[in-house]
Specification:
Helices cover about 40% and strands about 15% of the residues. The protein is α/β, with parallel strands linked by helices and about 350 residues long. It folds into 2 domains: about 10-155 and about 330-340, Glycogen Phosphorylase B (Rossmann fold, 3-Layer(aba) Sandwich), CATH 3.40.50; about 165-330, Rossmann fold (3-Layer(aba) Sandwich), CATH 3.40.50. The longest helix has 18 residues, at about 20-35.
């Protein structure tokens, strides 16, 4: 039985999931952990030529955080030297399955998706604890690992004043990635109809050159290229919208989504219209801090008409959404989560 009583040390083995690492670890917890004496560092595994001896020497006794994925050679090294390592937490926002990469990236092969799924299974075996970002993932993994913990996203950045909602022109925003393309395409007729009848609104999408043809003829459509994680944080701090769209349709590939979309919409000063399914049904109080709707396009049209037509009620919902964001997104909750895992040594 081996314990590691040394000064707490966290190393994040980063495999290009920088946004996930920042949201759930670095932004809410790093500064405070370091102030308390915990050593925290990020090792970008793809930037350096892999050296098993150097990696082993650097990682011995450290607590490790792995977010979403990790290269095969790193996994093999961790498996070979598992007893020399501290706790391993595996942060999961996505379950890989054969073909999943092909669906997300458009140019990957089913074999690539299958390999990603196999590597994820090996990470499940390596981890002392799997940390998931949504209740759907928690339920999916509950029978596959003895310790699965839910960590919902914190609020990053400041919430704006809502003076933009006093202006006459309002923006309807959807800032999902390409993996959310099918969800927003389902609303193309709704947005086309709304924009035809409301000359004081515009629609903003972040799809740029990848804009689906079905969305291209929406009146007063603004589309911009996707930006980096850091760029999106800066954009959210400056951009103001009135209404945010968060469709999550029945056959969506994003059914394991967290409520991060709620926080993004609120950070831009908007009121969200959310699909009436998890995770939003557990978070949104319909008509109080957002609207919940089914998959029927008529429900989305009615929700948009309601927010555009009763602006006083919309402004009240925006204020309530900010109160909810402060409540559920308290970064101290996330700090406490990692603080507890920093002070408990792995004992074998």
């Amino acid at each position: 039985m081996t314990a590691f009583p040394t000064t707490p040390r966290w190393i994040v083995l980063s495999d290009e999931a920088l946004a996930l690492e920042d949201i759930y670890f670095f932004l809410p917890a790093m500064a405070a952990l370091r102030k308390e004496g915990t050593r925290v560092e990020r090792f970008e595994t793809r930037r350096w030529k892999f050296s098993p001896k150097l990696a082993q020497a650097r990682l011995t006794g450290a607590c490790l955080l792995i977010a979403r994925s990790l290269g095969r050679e790193w996994i093999e090294m961790l498996e070979a030297h598992r007893e020399q390592l501290g706790r391993i937490c595996y942060l999961v926002d996505h379950l890989y399955s054969p073909g999943s990469l092909a669906a997300e990236e458009g140019n990957s092969t089913p074999e690539a998706g299958s390999e990603a799924a196999q590597l994820q299974q090996r990470l499940f075996t390596l981890a002392d604890e799997i940390v998931v970002v949504s209740e759907q993932l928690e339920a999916a993994l509950a029978s596959l690992h003895p310790k699965v913990s839910l960590l919902t996203p914190p609020l990053t950045g400041k919430l704006p004043d809502l003076h933009h909602l006093e202006q006459s022109d309002w923006c309807i925003g959807f800032h999902g990635t390409l993996s959310h393309r099918d969800d927003i395409v389902a609303l193309a007729p709704v947005l086309r109809d709304i924009q035809t009848r409301h000359s004081d609104s515009e629609v903003e999408l972040m799809m740029g050159r990848h804009l689906p043809l079905a969305l291209s003829d929406i009146p007063r459509l603004k589309t911009m290229e996707a930006v980096s994680w850091e760029g999106f944080q800066d954009y959210c701090s400056r951009r103001r919208i009135a209404i945010g769209l968060a469709p999550l349709m029945e056959n969506s590939d994003n059914r394991a989504a967290s409520w991060l979309r709620f926080l993004d919409i609120t950070r831009m000063g908007g009121v969200g219209i959310y699909s009436r399914r998890a995770p939003y049904v557990e978070l949104i109080e319909d008509g109080v801090d957002g609207l919940l709707v089914g998959d029927d396009p008529a429900e989305w049209t009615a929700a948009l008409e309601r927010l555009l037509g009763d602006r006083d009620a919309t402004r009240a919902m925006a204020h309530n959404a900010q109160h909810k964001a402060h409540e559920v997104g308290d970064p101290l909750r996330v700090l406490d989560f990692w603080r507890a895992r920093s002070t408990v040594a792995r004992v074998r």
